[in-house]
């Protein structure tokens, strides 16, 4: 589990499939609104509270994004602090959940060296990825892959996992502070120049 504070009242939590399996959960348990899921959620809130020094109580909005074969990202937004008597009412230990579940539209993979990027492109040559983008930052390479066709998903994710790891960085930060190598058609362009 990876925690990241996005701003004063918003936290991002990344859970891998291994994190879920270790706790005896599947992604489907979220849909069922199970007791196990609620226990995990409260554990995550306690850990976030300890790590970031915030009191989490009252209404909490949760956006859950399924990351296909990798796990899920949850964005937890806490209600702003309330003054006076209302605050005391909210400190009774209950958390009101508002959950919005969606599928992740884009995937970002981090790859250690350029040789692996070239080999990855060769393996993905048969898959049409016109909106793929390759960016370099701090000696690492990031391949941005748009939402895939359902039939290509398992194959592409399996190949990507062989050459890199799912990145928690934002594509917008990488575009702003990184060095775009190919802004579009990255797989096609890599194969044109190197394979």
UniProtKB/TrEMBL annotation:
InterPro entries on file: MecA_C_sf, Neg-reg_MecA
Short name of one Pfam family: MecA
Superkingdom to which the source organism belongs: Bacteria
PANTHER family from the UniProt entry: ADAPTER PROTEIN MECA, ADAPTER PROTEIN MECA 2
Similarity comment text for this entry: Belongs to the MecA family.
Subunit structure, as described in the record: Homodimer.
Protein's UniProt name: Adapter protein MecA 1/2
Organism expressing this protein natively: Cytobacillus purgationiresistens
Origin organism lineage: Bacteria, Bacillati, Bacillota, Bacilli, Bacillales
């Amino acid at each position: 589990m990876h925690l990241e504070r996005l701003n004063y009242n918003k936290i991002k939590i990344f859970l891998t499939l291994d994190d879920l399996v270790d706790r005896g959960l599947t992604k489907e348990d979220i849909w069922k609104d199970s007791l196990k899921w609620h226990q995990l959620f409260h554990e995550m809130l306690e850990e976030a509270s300890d790590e970031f020094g915030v009191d989490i109580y009252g209404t909490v909005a949760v956006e859950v994004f399924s990351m296909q074969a990798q796990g899920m990202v949850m964005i937890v937004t806490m209600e702003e602090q309330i003054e006076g008597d209302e605050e005391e009412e909210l400190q009774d230990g209950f958390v009101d959940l508002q959950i919005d579940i969606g599928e992740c539209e884009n995937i970002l993979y981090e790859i250690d060296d350029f040789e692996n990027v070239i080999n990855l492109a060769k393996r993905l040559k048969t898959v049409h990825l016109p909106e793929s983008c390759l960016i370099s930052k701090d000696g690492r390479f990031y391949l941005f892959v748009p939402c895939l066709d359902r039939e290509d998903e398992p194959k592409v994710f399996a190949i990507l996992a062989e050459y890199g790891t799912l990145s928690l960085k934002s594509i917008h930060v990488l575009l702003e502070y990184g060095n775009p190598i190919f802004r579009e058609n990255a797989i096609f362009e890599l194969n044109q120049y190197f394979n």
